[in-house]
Amino acid sequence: xxxxxxxxxxxxxxxxxxxxxxxxxxxxxxxxxxxxxxxxxxxxxxxxxxxxxxxxxxxxxxxxxxxxxxxxxxxxxxxxxxxxxxxxxxxxxxxxxxxxxxxxxxxxxxxxxxxxxxxxxxxxxxxxxxxxxxxxxxxxxxxxxxxxxxxxxxxxxxxxxxxxxxxxxxxxx
Length: 173
Fold this sequence. Notes:
4 helices, mainly alpha, elongated, Fumarate Reductase Cytochrome B subunit
């Protein structure tokens, strides 16, 4: 019986983690910069990386559904297990919702996304400016929620590693 995630699952997890950190840093930075070429580059990088992160989370979900998760070495408190599973699936859900909301909002207000400068991606939604504002608000609010969940995820991983020492942390390392 395997007690660790597969090498592929670990690689996708850590790639996704790096992408999320970059997206959060770009998102916070670009919204606080004045208008200009650098700001536009940050927005385009944010959109392109968001698309990559969306594809990575789809692959992660597919691999997770097919491969499952390894069992825990020791029994966890049932409440902790329920909260951990809920947090993981909420993270997956937000990682799908956030780029979809951002993509939809961008399609209602802005010129096409240039995927890493290689070419435009189709953005063909129709809607009102009010809908665009609601989608951007959803994108931002969900991103803040995701950032908080990720901080909690990291905190719990460190709790399991250094306080509980129960093997949970080692499943992904």
